[in-house]
């Protein structure tokens, strides 16, 4: 049963439209769409109402955050009908509020007050623009007509909806919709663009008959309630007061609902540039969530959706396809070749010039028109090649599934398996090889080039021939050496499930790391270096982990880490981008985490790091562990959770790293016996008692880490007084003695949030119980941290009590 949580007020009417430094907007006031950029601002100056030029001659009547360089738009009146230069928004003397075209006086947009008698307007500090009567009663407000964004103190009642924008720069209605349905279900839909009717529900709270209102309150919590106020679903639980953060909930143009935060004070960023960062988002992987038999999927027809390292969907075209509109990445893809003819006279000739590009772990769901079981891959290829309708064949589990264009719901993910065979024509002599590692056709081309070069030599002078022959022999040697190296790599035992990852050459990584020059971390069996890849104008930073143990042990760790990480896909896990398995060299390439480890963040700062940032890190780490334990295809026990293995990205989002010690469990296993793993101080007691190991060892380590996050000190400090040496023991003593405040030390912000601080301490004590049966699972840990379930009084960690 969901608990009722008492949170900060949510009513937008809590702020009076009268008064404030911005003043009220009197009858007869107006703004013109021109270069003067005049606006009506809120009393604090945080928000502005006025015209924004979105392209030459085209103006949007909008509300935006006015105190940040991005000037992020959060509402617009005419998103589908831009105003020309010279258009006017006027609050007329009779209370009408209208946007009119400058030439014929055509009305572009008008507010519709619930009652007559509008006396003035006001831009409020909440971000709400209102029309009000003399009694201060609000007759119309922008909060009641949201576009793609909700703000703190705003609600979405039954029947209310928001539409994603078309793109980052085009604010017209796009392809996705969020609606609080009359039946109580909060749902995200793809729409029948350019119409607005629903096509496919890719996210839902499943609260039919109970859901009533979506609330974004002043404390930064976003949740769905029943009519009696009971919380049914929490969309974002990492809240922080609006006094510290600008916040918004936006349905982005890619269909993902994101809770963004932006520090109001520069000192909250530790000297880093101030920018929007994502606090929470749904769904976690939109590429996999959309599987409709109608519509364009997450990326457009013939396109493929993949989840990027920033957890945002990327839309890419298959080989020999290109974007329909280069300025709209979701426009879909078109064929860059003449499709295979169904004319009998030309079909045989066509079959000779068509080939396939292999795309592992890729599928276009719902596009099948024929399928065959218990067939070989060669027969699948041949059948598609001889079928003029077949544009793609999916070969998976000895099955062949033929598809024709337009292809919809394209996606690439390690969970898909199999491979897509994308048919293309060689007649156009496409310049780009679909497989950078080389194909038979490219090899033939290389051989032909060598033959042509040899014929040139025969017609030249003897001396010149000798020089050129030496050069040709050198090329042949290089070609064979590369071929040999490729063959060695092809036959190296790489764990199954990583075929979609990039295979790097050792020399390639050596060059990217400048000869393994910049070390950013090290462990007992590996060293991590910073690397750089320059791809045109794009520069990508990576972390290259070089395993340094003897060959057999290195191979074991390599396989363990690649096997475990290749099965994961979560925003709070460091993403593995590729690997090198060349000769005796074992290297792993990860996304680069510019803010280093949680250990440095916590223990190297002279003053306590920002309290709300620490709270977000606690939630993020718990979410990552919850995914490993309960949501992964193969359950994973990390076995070495500690601050050094939690890394922070550019926005200080925490991600769990280093799976070298992970212990995989089969689907039918719940425990395993293995040697002691992990790091002293974070190792659960059962490791030393020859007891079966379960996911509860990670829960114990998380409890220690959570205490370190709360108190900004290490678990063990031998140079302090006896009662404070072991943090877990001291924390329980403080809790039992009613001295929780002393754990916060000099952190005044944490002390001001003492209720949450105490709840987190209680959760940590439950996690570090010596009896594994007493420790909660990570999903329950999440619920207790959020406050959606009550946290019982924890027992002494060394005693026994009823498990929760």
Automatic annotation (TrEMBL):
Domain called Protein kinase: residue spans: 514-786
Positions of region (Disordered): 427-446
Keyword Lipid biosynthesis: no
Transmembrane segments: 456-479
Annotated compartments: Membrane
Pfam families: B_lectin (PF01453), PK_Tyr_Ser-Thr (PF07714)
GO MF annotation, one: ATP binding
Domain Bulb-type lectin: 22-144
Keywords: ATP-binding, Disulfide bond, EGF-like domain, Glycoprotein, Kinase, Lectin, Membrane, Nucleotide-binding, Receptor, Serine/threonine-protein kinase, Signal, Transferase, Transmembrane, Transmembrane helix
Keyword Secreted set for record: no
The organism's place on the tree of life at top rank: Eukaryota
Catalytic activity annotation: L-threonyl-[protein] + ATP = O-phospho-L-threonyl-[protein] + ADP + H(+); L-seryl-[protein] + ATP = O-phospho-L-seryl-[protein] + ADP + H(+)
Full protein name: Receptor-like serine/threonine-protein kinase
Species, as recorded: Erythranthe guttata (Yellow monkey flower)
């Amino acid at each position: 049963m969901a608990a009722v949580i008492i949170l900060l007020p949510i009513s937008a009417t809590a702020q009076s439209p009268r008064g404030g430094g911005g003043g009220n907007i009197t009858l007869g006031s107006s703004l013109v769409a021109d270069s003067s950029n005049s606006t009506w601002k809120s009393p604090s100056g945080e928000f502005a109402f006025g015209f924004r030029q979105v392209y030459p001659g085209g103006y949007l009547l909008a509300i935006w955050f006015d105190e940040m360089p991005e000037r992020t738009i959060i509402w617009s009146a005419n998103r589908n009908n831009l105003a020309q230069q010279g258009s006017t928004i006027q609050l007329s003397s009779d209370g009408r509020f209208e946007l009119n075209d400058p030439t014929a006086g055509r009305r572009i947009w008008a507010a519709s007050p619930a009652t007559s008698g509008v006396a003035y307007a006001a831009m409020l500090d909440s971000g709400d623009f209102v029309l009000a009567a003399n009694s201060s009663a609000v007759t119309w407000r922008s909060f009641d007509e949201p576009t793609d964004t909700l703000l703190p103190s705003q609600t979405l009642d039954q029947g209310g909806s928001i539409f994603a924008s078309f793109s980052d720069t085009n604010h017209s209605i796009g392809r996705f919709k969020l609606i609080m349905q009359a039946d109580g279900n909060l749902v995200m839909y793809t729409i029948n663009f350019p119409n607005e009717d629903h096509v496919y529900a890719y996210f839902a709270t499943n609260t039919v008959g109970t859901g009533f209102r979506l609330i974004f309150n002043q404390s930064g919590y976003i949740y769905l309630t029943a009519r009696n106020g009971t919380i049914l679903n929490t969309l974002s639980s990492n809240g922080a007061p609006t006094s510290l953060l600008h916040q918004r909930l936006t349905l982005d143009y890619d269909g993902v609902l994101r809770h963004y935060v932006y520090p109001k004070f520069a000192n909250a960023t530790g000297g880093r540039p101030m920018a929007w960062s994502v606090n929470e988002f749904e769904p976690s992987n939109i590429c996999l969530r959309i599987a409709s038999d109608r519509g364009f999927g997450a990326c457009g027809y013939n396109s493929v959706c993949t989840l990027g390292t920033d957890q945002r969907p990327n839309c890419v075209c298959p080989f020999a396809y290109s974007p329909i509109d280069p300025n709209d990445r979701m426009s879909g893809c078109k064929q860059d070749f003449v499709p295979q003819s169904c004319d009998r006279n030309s079909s045989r000739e066509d079959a000779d010039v068509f080939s396939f590009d292999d795309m592992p772990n890729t599928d276009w769901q719902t596009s099948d028109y024929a399928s065959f079981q218990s067939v070989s891959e060669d027969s699948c290829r041949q059948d598609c090649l001889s079928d003029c309708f077949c544009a793609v064949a999916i070969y998976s589990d000895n099955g062949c599934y033929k598809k024709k264009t337009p292809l919809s719901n394209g996606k690439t993910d390690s969970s898909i398996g199999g491979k897509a065979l994308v048919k293309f024509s060689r007649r156009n002599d496409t310049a780009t090889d679909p497989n950078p590692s080389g194909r038979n056709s490219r090899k033939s081309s290389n051989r032909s080039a060598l033959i042509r070069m040899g014929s040139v030599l025969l017609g030249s002078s003897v001396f010149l021939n000798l020089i050129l022959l030496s050069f040709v022999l050198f090329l042949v040697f290089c070609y064979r050496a590369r071929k040999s190296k490729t063959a060695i790599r092809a036959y190296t035992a790489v764990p199954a499930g990583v075929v979609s990852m990039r295979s790097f050459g050792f020399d390639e990584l050596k060059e990217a790391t400048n000869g393994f020059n910049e070390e950013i971390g090290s462990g007992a069996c590996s060293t991590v270096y910073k690397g750089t890849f320059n791809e045109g104008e794009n520069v990508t930073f990576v972390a290259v982990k070089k395993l340094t143990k003897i060959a057999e042990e290195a191979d074991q760790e390599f396989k363990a880490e690649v096997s475990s990480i290749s099965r994961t896909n979560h925003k709070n896990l460091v993403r593995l981008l590729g690997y090198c398995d060349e000769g005796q060299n074992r290297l792993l390439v990860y996304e680069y985490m510019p803010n280093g480890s949680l250990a440095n963040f916590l223990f190297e700062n002279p003053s306590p790091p920002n309290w709300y940032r620490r709270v977000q890190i606690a939630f993020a780490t718990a979410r990552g562990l919850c995914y490993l334990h309960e949501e992964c295809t193969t359950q994973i026990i990390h076995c070495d959770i500690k601050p050094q293995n939690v890394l922070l990205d550019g926005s200080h989002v925490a991600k769990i790293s280093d799976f070298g010690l992970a212990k995989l469990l089969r689907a039918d296993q719940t425990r395993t016996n293995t040697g002691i793993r992990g790091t002293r101080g974070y190792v659960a007691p059962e490791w030393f008692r020859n007891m079966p190991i379960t996911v509860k060892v990670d829960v114990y380590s998380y409890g220690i880490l959570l205490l370190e996050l709360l108190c900004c000190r290490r678990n063990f400090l031998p140079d302090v007084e006896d009662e404070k040496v072991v943090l877990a023991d001291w924390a329980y003593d403080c809790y039992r003695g009613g001295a929780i405040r002393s754990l916060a030390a000099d952190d005044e912000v944490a002390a001001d949030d003492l209720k949450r601080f105490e709840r987190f301490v209680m959760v940590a004590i439950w996690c570090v119980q010596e009896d594994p049966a007493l420790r909660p699972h990570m999903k329950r840990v999440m619920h207790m941290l959020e406050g959606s379930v009550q946290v019982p009084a924890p027992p002494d960690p060394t005693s026994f009590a009823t498990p929760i």
